[in-house]
Every structure is written in structure tokens, then in C-alpha cells.
Specification:
- With 205 residues, the chain is mainly alpha-helical.
- The protein has a domain of 134 residues.
- It is built from 11 helices and 3 strands.
- A 3-stranded antiparallel beta sheet has the order 2-1-3.
- Strand 1 and strand 2 form a beta hairpin.
- Helix 2 packs antiparallel against helix 3, helix 3 packs antiparallel against helix 6 and helix 6 runs antiparallel to helix 7.
- It is globular, with a radius of gyration of 25 Å.
- The chain starts with 12 loop residues before the first helix and ends with a helix.
- About 14% of the residues have low confidence.
């Protein structure tokens, strides 16, 4: 019995040399609308003012403390920094639709943290800070304006989205895979099944 000949597969130059292109991770689709740009700008300005106040108050360690605040702020109040709390917006981690954690906050604010680090460079600190602020600020603003969900570069890294706090108030939280497989939950679900099996065995006996 003969089989039809299979058409030769087309191979790219990378495949012939044993190279494979790894696709970039795709951010989870979001059910939330784009948050107000004005509210986000107001929240960011408030956080920057608070970071500057921390910088001036804490003395020699002010730059480091201010940097840490900018990085971790969005994970402080259940997905809200003080500025976002004031302006009623919130950061959501899209895969679980839960408030952003400190890890998510650090990832999404890493571009701004880089600008602060450039400012700490000796001798060229001010010029490096100014150039980084223009470049990073311009790129992130362009991303927010062009993206349908208002996601900037940091949001793509962290898989987060800034949303209206009122919109998320009634949204159900999606359990993560780790929570669903927690040992305690598995044991609690297994006990009723064992009880039913024991009752069935007693009836048949």
C-alpha cells in the first residue's frame, strides 16, 4: 500500500542552522477598560512628590529610600500606591485579576527606577538623569496613549494594567494555579469523597 508523498517542509535559515526563535510572552487578555490618563498622571505626580519629600527627609540615604518607594509603591495598599489611592486608580495583575503585589510593582516601575539610578552616577548624574527622564518618560507616555488598554512598557513586563478602582470593585478574583493546588484545599476536598465512598461500601455490604 503506497502513501502519498509528503510535501517538504519549508525551513528558515535559522532552522537550518539549529536556531529557534523563542516567542515573547503574551499578556493575558483584560476585561477592564482603559483608565483615565488624567487620573494616572495625577497619581504619578503625587507619588513623585512623595518620593522627593522622602528623599529630603531621610538625609544621606534619601536617594535609596526614594528609589525603593518608587519601585514598591504600587504593592503597598492592595495594588495602590498612596498616589493611586488618592486618585482612585489601581494596578491589577492580569493572569489572576488580583491586586498587584510588590514583585509586580517592582517590575512595572523598573523603567523609572533606572532613571533614578542614572541620576546617582558620579559627575554626570544630572545629565544622565535628565536624558533618561526624557527618553523613558517619552517612551512610556507614548505607549500609554497608543495602547488600547493603556499599558506601558513596565505593564507588559509585569503583566499588569492600571484600572479604575470602582470598576474592579465588583469583579470576581480568579484563583491562581498554585492556590487551586494547595495541599490544604486538596485534603478538604478529598474528605467528602472518602466519606461518600465509605457509605456506598457499607450499603453494598
Amino acid at each position: 500500500m503506497s502513501f502519498p508523498a509528503r510535501a517538504p517542509a519549508l525551513m528558515s535559515d535559522d532552522d537550518r542552522h539549529g536556531l529557534h526563535v523563542v516567542p515573547m510572552p503574551v499578556v493575558e487578555s483584560s476585561p477592564y477598560p482603559k483608565a483615565s490618563i488624567l487620573l494616572r498622571a495625577g497619581a504619578r505626580l503625587a507619588d513623585l512628590c512623595l518620593a522627593v519629600a522622602i528623599y529630603r527627609i531621610t538625609g544621606p540615604a534619601g536617594a535609596v529610600v526614594g528609589l525603593l518607594y518608587l519601585l514598591f509603591a504600587d504593592g503597598m495598599l492592595q495594588g495602590q500606591s498612596p498616589g493611586k489611592k488618592l486618585f482612585g486608580v489601581k494596578v491589577i495583575y492580569l493572569p489572576t485579576r488580583s491586586p498587584a503585589r510588590h514583585r509586580d510593582s517592582v517590575l512595572r516601575n523598573a523603567p523609572f527606577g533606572l532613571v533614578v539610578l542614572l541620576g546617582l552616577m558620579p559627575e554626570v548624574g544630572f545629565h544622565a538623569f535628565l536624558g533618561g527622564a526624557v527618553l523613558v518618560g517619552g517612551l512610556e507616555t507614548w505607549k500609554v496613549l497608543r495602547d488600547p488598554l493603556g499599558m506601558r512598557l513596565g505593564d507588559s513586563w509585569a503583566e499588569t494594567q492600571v484600572v479604575d478602582g470602582k470598576v474592579v470593585a465588583g469583579q470576581p478574583m480568579v484563583r491562581s494555579t498554585a492556590d487551586a493546588r494547595a495541599p490544604g484545599r486538596v485534603m478538604r476536598e478529598a474528605l467528602p469523597r472518602r466519606a461518600r465512598a465509605a457509605r456506598c461500601a457499607a450499603i453494598h455490604d
